[in-house]
Structures are given as structure tokens and as C-alpha cells.
Design goal:
Belongs to the GreA/GreB family. It comes from Azobacteroides pseudotrichonymphae genomovar. CFP2. Residues 82-155 form the Transcription elongation factor GreA/GreB C-terminal domain. InterPro entries: GreA/GreB_C_sf, Tscrpt_elong_fac_GreA, Tscrpt_elong_fac_GreA/B, Tscrpt_elong_fac_GreA/B_C, Tscrpt_elong_fac_GreA/B_fam, Tscrpt_elong_fac_GreA/B_N, Tscrpt_elong_fac_GreA/B_N_sf. This protein is α/β, with parallel strands linked by helices and 156 residues long. The protein has two domains: 4-74, Helix Hairpins (Orthogonal Bundle), CATH 1.10.287.180; 79-155, Roll (Chitinase A, domain 3). 39% of the residues lie in helices and 25% in strands. It contains three helices and seven strands. The protein has helices at 8-37, 46-70, 124-129, and strands at 4-6, 72-74, 90-95, 101-107, 118-120, 137-142, 145-155. The strands form two sheets. Strands 5-4-3-7-6 form a five-stranded mixed sheet. Helix 1 packs antiparallel against helix 2 (46-70). The two termini are 29 Å apart.
Length: 156
């Protein structure tokens, strides 16, 4: 598996999710399975089958999160600079075509949160912005065509 770079905050959030899934969700599903078993014939017990499927999905999610944590390297945020765009920068962009201004923070895949304006470093927009400086025009190749953004500011 590839190495994942993330902030301490994102890493801690992953650990909290694992603890929650193991300490809250897992016992709840185990209880559901036990209650369904008590109802008799397991071959036609819909509740039992649903609980077992939920358990499988939960265990897969826990395994995936643990794998992600095992392959994570923390980013030292004190070394983040703003002379050119890089991961963890907050970037203000102006769409050349329509004049719309947008603010994005470039983060790791695991920390992506579109509602908060955090986009993955692996998106076409991020890839087109990396290394650009304030005042430059970024040509972003997207599935819907090329978009031109002017970089207005870079911050942390």
C-alpha cells in the first residue's frame, strides 16, 4: 500500500474512528447477532443474515482504517511554506472565465472534506496547482475541459 501523508489532526481523527468502531459499533453488532440467534432457525433468519453482513462490512472498514494508519506519515506543519503551492496550503483562486473566486486547502486523500473546502492532493485541480505561485495562471485539465485559474493568494 502507498504511503499516506496527513496532518496530526487527521491522523488523530482516524484513530478516534477506529476506537469508536471497535468499542461501540462492534459490540452493538455482536449483540444483534446474539439476539437473532435466539430466534431459532438461522437458515431463514433475515435479522441474523443482516447482522452478519453488517459485521463483515464493519470488520472490513476497521481493517482498511488500520492499514491506512499503518502506512501514514505525519506532515511536519512547521515546514509548510507559502512561496509556491504545496500540500496543506490554503489557496485562493479566481476562475478566469467566470471571475468566480474559490478557496481550497490541499490535503491528503484521507482528510478530504469538500464542505470545508479541503480537496485531495490527488485531484486534477490540486495536481495543476502544485508548484504555482501567486499571480500565475494554472491550466487545470478536468474531465469537462480545461479551466484556467489565477492564483490570488497562498497561506497556511
Amino acid at each position: 500500500m502507498a504511503i499516506n501523508y496527513m496532518t496530526k489532526g487527521g491522523y488523530d481523527k482516524l484513530l478516534e474512528e477506529i476506537v469508536y468502531l471497535e468499542s461501540e459499533e462492534r459490540p452493538s453488532i455482536i449483540k444483534q447477532i446474539a439476539e437473532a440467534r435466539e430466534k431459532g432457525d438461522l437458515s431463514e433468519n433475515v435479522e441474523y443474515n443482516a447482522a452478519r453482513e453488517a459485521q463483515s462490512i464493519l470488520e472490513l472498514k476497521i481493517t482498511q482504517l488500520k492499514s491506512l494508519v499503518a502506512n501514514t506519515r505525519l506532515i511536519d506543519e512547521s515546514h509548510i511554506q507559502t512561496n509556491s503551492i504545496q500540500i496543506l496550503n490554503k489557496v485562493t483562486l479566481r476562475n478566469i472565465k467566470n471571475g468566480q473566486t474559490t478557496v481550497y486547502t490541499l490535503v491528503s486523500e484521507a482528510e478530504t472534506d469538500l464542505k470545508a473546502g479541503k480537496i485531495s492532493i490527488n485531484t486534477p485541480i490540486s495536481k495543476g496547482l502544485i508548484g504555482k505561485k501567486v499571480g500565475e495562471i494554472a491550466e487545470i485539465k478536468t474531465p469537462s475541459g480545461i479551466i484556467y485559474f489565477e492564483i490570488l493568494s497562498i497561506s497556511i
